Amino acid sequence: MLEFLYTHSYNLNETLPRIENQKDRKIKFLETHIALYVLGDKYALPSLCQYSVDCFRILLDRHGWKRDTDVLLACIPSVYAGTPENDRTLRDIIIQAVTHRMFGPEIRCSEDKKGFLDSMQHNEQFRNDMMGSILDTCEMKNLTADLDSDSLNVDSRSSPSIPEVKALHR
User: Fold this and answer.
1) What is the reported pLDDT for 150?
2) For residues 61-72, average pLDDT
3) What is the DSSP annotation of 97-158?
4) Which of 10, 135, 137, 145 is the most exposed place for a label (fewest CB within 10 A)?
């Protein structure tokens, strides 16, 4: 953060220790951008927030890290634990990346799907955001889904209805 205050940028290649494992390196870079975003928010430094978001997005989009399921899964807890519920910036980026990964042409592995479903099971806010994104994706593709609560292992007495989930997402 101090480097950013003086230079209006930061270079994680120089700051972070060398990590040989590429997956661990990607996760550490993204988690550091998340942490710097959280610090920027805490200390009311909107330029730090914007810079860390830009770096986070570049790594996911331009460098193709959003195609790495393990990297996305590792970022979910950091994004949701570190940002307030009303701050959608990083949450929307991660939801968009996960939705693209789940519904995009690349996902072929049931392990990827299982990992995302496990994340949804353990993080209520992420689950609500994903349900809203899934519903939006279905609407965009003009799909109708016959959702059977038994096939989803959902207790309909305690689970929100589709309109309630949509309301949570908005």
Assistant:
1) 44
2) 85
3) HHHHHHHSTT---HHHHHHHHHHHHH-HHHHHHHHHHHHHHHHHTT------TTTTT--TTT
4) 145
